Amino acid sequence: xxxxxxxxxxxxxxxKIGSSVLTVDGGVRPGIVRDIARQVALLKKxxxxxxxxxxxxxxxxxxxLKLKKRPREIPQKQAVAAIGQPVLVRHYSQAFQKAGLHVxxxxxxxxxxxxxxxxxxxxxxxxxxxxxxVVPVVNENDSVAVEEIQVGDxxxxxxxxxxxVDADLLLILTDIDxxxxxxxxxxxxxxxxxLVENVDEDAxxxxxxxxxxxxxxxxxxxxxxxxxxxxYGVPTWVVGGNDxxxxxxxxxxxxxxxxxxxxxxxxxxxKYWIGYTLKATGQIVVDEGAVMALRDxxxxxxxxxxxxxxxxxxxxxxxxxxxxxxxxxxxxxTAYSSREIExxxxxxxxxxxxxxxxxxxxxxxxRDDLVIL
Length: 373
Ligand code: GLU
Description:
An 8-stranded mixed sheet has the order 5-6-4-1-7-11-12-10, with helices on both faces. Strands 14-13-15-16-17 form a 5-stranded mixed sheet, sandwiched between helices. The protein folds into 2 domains: about 270 residues, 3-Layer(aba) Sandwich (Carbamate kinase); about 90 residues, PUA domain (Archaeosine Trna-guanine Transglycosylase, Chain: A, domain 4). The chain is α/β, with parallel strands linked by helices. It is built from 15 helices and 17 strands. Helix content is about 40%, strand content about 20%.
């Protein structure tokens, strides 16, 4: 039922393809790109716009350099991705051309999505590509993405892109045919979970990182992507990409893979941006009372509830808010710098002016600038 309804509403689709589906021994698997191109062409005929988010730059680069292990150091990754990305896109452009379509390459970093102005600029580029009937092929710009501006894995990138292009569905092709209650590679009695209504803590407990030399994420990063997409009102469907007809099966609403439903109550695009797009530059540790005030009473963060500060950040920066036992509970934009918070932590708001010699606000993080995770 949910499947049929979602498919009916899908006019724009983000299709994420991981390295584990796309590549084998450092090269692109023969036939796979052709299958994808053929299936995307069918979608386009039905009037559905498609954005591909494809990994594989590093895997292709590894193939060219004959590396057996995925590089760990960032400069190495940058170089290997720079070598592999044109190879990857050449595969797409040749296969799509045969299916009567053109592709366009878009490489993004977190910085392109975190600044509102750049976010809109990127959005306009996609809009023009849709108008031209071209299929954007997106990857992280690994060659310039140092840690501070990295999204990190393409599952999360695909969730951010779904938000950027206002997609109706995020379809993730991976090497497992869905989300299981146990690791299907290790236990025989594992059952596929067809539908997840709430991407919650229980779902995360079930997921295990399936680390593979070629890919960055496992089920955990897919769940994180589904969680983010859900907040923006986008359903996520995780399916096995090794079935050459899988996209058609999804579009027919068949019971394949795992469908994660979106939240009924979605975050505004600004809150989404605070919670999921911005990279935090520091952390604020709060006491139990503040945890309750933030989480249960939906209050702002006051200096009195703060017990510690980590990192060096300025006013307006994104920060993570941690419980006394270092669990992440919220993200927000801070109204005071880390130096200032060091001085006012644990104190009443009425004392701020006396301590600092000035006061901007009573709250360190205002409720409007805060997202509970
Ligand atoms: N951007 C990386 C690549 O193209 C992949 C990241 C990921 O696998 O999630 O190789």
